[in-house]
């Protein structure tokens, strides 16, 4: 079973490639499934269903911006483990006292070798972890070559467009709607940020710690638009959350409803 964890905040290119890959899996009779983290307790908050919506709801940044990796645990690992726990073949394996084998796609390139180093030697009662690309000695170039020989387009690296691991060159290729939401996320979280500058955490010689500052410096969005988002949209969002708190959960508007109105509004301004 091939599982894909969707955080709801992947790049457009990744979502465009997903059906291509699913078609390839179908042609090779490989079962597959998309899993998502499903929040269940919203208290007085508008319901949220993606990493972006989670950050806006709680006025915070993804955990990687604070030097942690709990966003991967919450939005990727946990929903996969939850799905497998209800999968009959896995239940049968555990019933006879064995472990389910998890294949993880870390390759032999330097970047994935560093990621693998954090996982090496990890022991779990339910799973054994194997890394076939590393066993074969495949680096990123070897993976790209194999994808091309299969006749498939080579996808970009899968990553959330809010991620602190994002390079400046990757941010510069994001569409305006992503850049606007990045500005909004940092503006919404700004009053609570004590130890980090923004999504990139802290400044380096190559870039500031705030993605908003980088977007402004590079002219990726008009300064007037950035100022309008910081000065108006974040306040409107707080008002929306305050009103939503008094509405019964079954009738309460979602964070996604507000984001859609936000996108429509800035699109009109940009036009």
From TrEMBL:
- Top-rank taxon, per record: Bacteria
Q: Which organism is it from?
A: Sphingobium rhizovicinum
**Annotated protein name in UniProt:** Phosphoadenosine phosphosulphate reductase domain-containing protein
